[in-house]
Automatic annotation (TrEMBL):
A biological process from GO: DNA restriction-modification system
GO molecular function: DNA binding
Record keywords, A-Z: DNA-binding, Restriction system
Keyword DNA-binding found: yes
Pfam families on file: Methylase_S
Family, per entry: Belongs to the type-I restriction system S methylase family.
Gene3D superfamilies: Bipartite methylase S protein (1.10.287.1120), DNA methylase specificity domains (3.90.220.20)
Signal peptide residue numbers: none
Name of the protein described by the UniProt record: EcoKI restriction-modification system protein HsdS
Residue ranges of every copy of the Type I restriction modification DNA specificity domain listed in the record: 21-190, 239-387
């Protein structure tokens, strides 16, 4: 859908705004909003924190556009003791310090009163500025805002308020602000619904992938194969020519080797941590192909490595495949809920001595090859579908950003559309 432009424009004199409708004003942010900061009540005073019910927002909470609760809470005593102040519902929160500003400028509307920490600022609009328009205006100017982000001495990203408040914005009359907000509410909701559909597709593909793996490595590919009792809790039956064996008889797991960032020398050898490839070094200590499990951190994650590599101390890697196909062993590990074998310490850890005795169904080598070929073929199609869904999400999000920017800078005239949607 395309939208008309306004009839008359003037040059705003501002590079990022360009030409704006001739009846709009161009105003510094400092004349449009009032700002409030926050802080952290003393962590040593338990009265401020124990069993607290008052929401206390930090940047980790700003992953939504509407906020009604937070991860952390403080007590009413902290508020009454002036260790924290409540920000009114309807205010907007923005991040002014933190690494998230390296790529994202969150703008969040409060649905309930709450306190905020020192990395955030609360904004409330002054007269003749619609609160909803303010939120869209700030989102539509995120690129310009991120261009103003500086770096503190310790490397943290910081948005200097004195500089940001001098930013010039295009402000239409109040009724037009309301029309633009109504338009964006409707159109972005449509885009968000399409994004949700694509994300759901990706989740369904992941669930389907897991189901396909599980069936293939526990039942095989032949639905007509004669079955026999497995003698283990799951699966109850397996093909009668398969065996049930302890994992230690099919492979040997070994703990990875620690290497610090300072010890690494630039190269093309992947250093594999629990979450996957984390960096590159100039020396490998294990030959490819590799099957690597998350030992601590991302416990139970599984990675297939196609070149010689260095397994980090946070992993377990397959040292010996004992004549089995590495790729099949990778799929076999993917079928297991490895996180459930956590040793139960305060820091979740996967112990090879717990995994080695586990009894699992195991097919002969020729069937391992058939299963791997089948799964690789099926998942090539899944990968294509996931990539297409990911690209669709990216394009929809770009469309959303462009639409907001066009509306709040006056590049499109949505007054007639907004009136149709609200009547």
């Amino acid at each position: 859908m395309s939208f008309p432009a306004y009839e008359e424009y003037n040059d705003s004199g501002v590079d990022w705004l360009g030409r704006v409708p001739d009846h709009w004003d161009v105003v510094p942010l400092k004349f449009l909003v009032a700002t409030r900061g926050g802080g952290t009540p003393s962590k040593t005073n338990k009265k401020y924190w124990d069993n607290g019910l008052v929401p206390w927002a930090s940047s980790k909470d700003l992953k939504v556009e509407l906020l009604d609760d937070t991860i952390d809470h403080i007590t009413q005593f902290a508020v009454e003791d002036d260790a924290a102040e409540l920000v009114d519902a309807g205010s907007l929160l923005v991040v002014v310090r933190g690494m998230i500003l390296a790529h994202t400028f969150p703008v969040v509307k409060l649905l309930v009163p709450m306190a905020i920490n020192q990395d955030l600022k609360a904004l409330t609009p002054k007269e003749q500025l619609d609160p909803d328009y303010l939120s869209w205006m700030l989102r539509g100017s995120s690129r310009e805002t991120l261009d103003r982000v500086d770096e503190a001495a310790h490397g943290t990203k910081v948005l200097r308020m004195d500089s940001w408040l001098r930013t010039l914005f295009a402000i239409p009359p109040l009724d037009e602000q309301e029309a633009i907000s109504a338009f964006l509410d409707v159109e972005t909701a449509k885009i968000d619904a399409l994004v949700s559909e694509q994300r759901r597709l990706i989740e369904l593909l992941k669930e389907k992938r897991q189901a396909v793996i599980s069936h293939a490595v526990t039942k095989g590919l032949n639905p007509e194969a004669p079955m026999k009792p497995s003698g283990i809790p799951w699966p109850i039956e397996i093909p009668e020519h398969w065996e049930v064996s302890q994992l230690r008889r099919k492979m040997e797991l070994q703990r990875g080797v620690d290497i610090t960032k300072d010890e690494q020398i630039e190269g093309d050898v992947p250093v594999v941590s629990s979450g996957g490839i984390s960096s590159y070094h100039n020396q490998a200590i294990v030959d490819a192909p590799g099957v690597v499990l998350g030992r601590k951190g991302s416990v139970g994650s599984i990675h297939y490595i196609e070149k010689d590599y260095w397994p980090h101390d946070t992993t377990l890697y397959v040292k010996e495949f004992r004549g089995n196909l590495p790729r099949f062993l990778y799929y076999k590990m993917c079928s297991m809920d490895l996180a459930s074998y956590d040793t139960g310490s305060s820091n979740p850890t996967l112990n090879r001595n717990v995994l080695h005795p586990v009894r699992v169904p195991w097919p002969p080598l020729y069937e391992q090859e058939e299963i791997v070929e089948h799964l690789d073929s099926v998942f090539a199609e899944f990968d294509t579908l996931e990539a297409e869904a990911g690209l669709a999400i990216e394009l929809l999000q770009e469309r959303r950003t462009a639409l907001i920017s066009a509306a709040v800078t006056g590049k499109i005239d949505v007054r007639a559309f907004a009136n149709r949607e609200t009547t």
